[in-house]
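Researcher: I'm preparing a figure for a lab meeting and need a structural model of a single chain. I don't have an experimental structure, so a prediction will have to do for now. The sequence is pasted below. Please return the structure as tokens so I can convert it later.
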Amino acid sequence: MSGIFRLTIRYLLYNRLKSITLVLCVSLAILLPVLLQFGVTQFEQDLMARAHATPLVAGMKGSRFDLALQSMYFSQADLETTSMQEVETIQETGYALPIPLAVRFTAQQAPIAGTTLDYFEFRKLEVADGTSLQRLGDCVVGANVADRLQLKPGDRLMSDPLNVFDLSGNYPLKMRVAGVLAQAFSPDDDAVFVDLKTEWIISGIGHGHQSIDAETDKDLVLQQQGQSTVANAAVPQFNEVTEENLASFHFHGDIESFPVTSMILVPHDPKSEVLLLGMYDTKESAIQLIRPVEIVNELLQLVFRIKQLFDANTLLVSISVGLLLALVFILSLRLRQRERQTMFQLGCSRSTIWKLQLTELCFILAASLVIVAVLTLVLRVYIHQLMRMWFI
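Model: Understood. Here is the structure written out token by token.
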């Protein structure tokens, strides 16, 4: 048997181009269904794990899918905002802990999530370097964001403007990086977290500017009313919160009317969850409550329908590749007919000649399986990043 192995290896090495081509063809034919099945399975596990970890989500009535995906994955969606009044209403019921979310802006293409410290406790997020949010203008970045942008505590991160040509829009805010979160292998790794008030400053609801009084430049004063001074729009606003100008930042309006895009609700018990769902299950309510698990199941049903099309296509491709390989081997046998006759005349039995052919086939299949196994192992390492890149 060692002689058959030696002859087979010599033949494959001598015909390198043919051998490599056959190995790649077989590898692709096997790799496509394996990766598809592995990817869909991992996609389902990631979605369901995030959905099970998020009991309820509340937001204005509209697209349930956008509401669920933005609340769980911070995807950019044009959701109608609700107000802090709704957050306080749910808080007063005592049925659940409301965790407000405001996801409307980005920083270096990473979503900015305005929330409260309850979110970090709810998701079990830990700060690996630095501290948590301490004051206005602070941000905590996910592990992937910190790695991509080379950020560390004490650095500055500028928010992205919604429209660089809209001079009356939001002002980019230079945020201080207070800390870097530990790797969580979740969408939180790709987000930038700020306090709700910081998010409202980015949106333009709050701002800070230099003090205006009688000594101020007359070009900045609109009118003087007794002891009060009314400034005009030419007063420069601060684009960074520092210890020196922190006291100058303020908000216009009632905080109960300030916007949030959604809320994650953590019911205290199953009975409270049912009561909460019943409270908003009316036509008059402008708020909708959804169970992310139900939304994810609907998404997966759509994914599995698409997967059936891929499975059919993969089957046809595999059959085509199989027929092509069979044709190659048949043509190879015909081209090597004189070689077999020579081997037979040298004393090799017909069974030995066929063993040589089968051993070549086994070597090609084994090499293809090794390639598929290596690529699958590599995929397992980067599967979480690839899932968020391709699907979310």
